[in-house]
Amino acid sequence: MTATALKKEIDTMAEQTTKTWQKVCTKAELVEFSGVAAWIETAEGPAQVAIFYLPSERLTGKGDPLYAVDHFDPFSKANVIARGIVGDLKGAAVVASPIYKQHFRLEDGQCLEDDSVKLRTWNIEFKGEEVWIEG
User: Fold this and answer.
1) What is the pTM of this model?
2) Parallel, antiparallel, or unpaired for β 130-134 and 124-127?
3) Taking the CB of residue 42, how many other CB atoms lie within 10 A of it?
4) 21 touches 134 (CB < 8 A)
5) What is the pLDDT of residue 46?
6) Is the pLDDT of residue 60 over 60?
7) What is the mean pLDDT of the segment spanning 108-113?
8) CA–CA separation, 101 vs 13, rounded Å?
9) 10 Å Cβ neighbour count for 69?
10) What is the distance between the alpha carbons of residues 19 and 68, in angstroms, rounded to a whole number?
11) CA distances, 22 to each of 68, 77, 80, 111, 124 (Å)
């Protein structure tokens, strides 16, 4: 394969991974009020995502019970966010990093202790019993 053909194939693959929905797991594989980590494909390449399932929020009408944020903690420089402690601060669902304990809002990824730090977030939803994320 020539370099030009290879570049064309890579460009085509990048176009295909731009904002496409991907199945990451099933509902049975999620842990309520806890996080799980998953790999997704993005236009920038593979990414680790922390997925949180908070089913009681659907009952209270406070939004979607699924959240997807970066698994990478920018303070400790480690992929640990899915192992964080889930809670509620000032009426917002948050995860506390298990290393240095910074809190990140699950809705938008904003760090509550440092306004200049924000985790990436992804659209995520149930399709039947499957969990799909837009990467």
Assistant:
1) 0.81
2) antiparallel
3) 18
4) yes
5) 94
6) no
7) 97
8) 38
9) 26
10) 14
11) 13, 26, 22, 27, 9
Average pLDDT over residues 40-49: 93
Sheet (strand 124-127) strand order: 21-26, 130-134, 124-127
Q: How many residues does the chain have?
A: 135
DSSP string, 83-128: GSEEEEETTEEEEE-TTT--EEETTT-BBSS-TT-B--B--EEEET
**94-120: b or e for each residue (b if 16 or more CB lie within 10 Å)?**
bbbbbeeebbbbbeebbbeeeeeebbe
Average pLDDT over residues 2-23: 59
Q: Please state which of the ranges 2-16, 60-74, 86-100 shows the lowest mean pLDDT.
A: 2-16
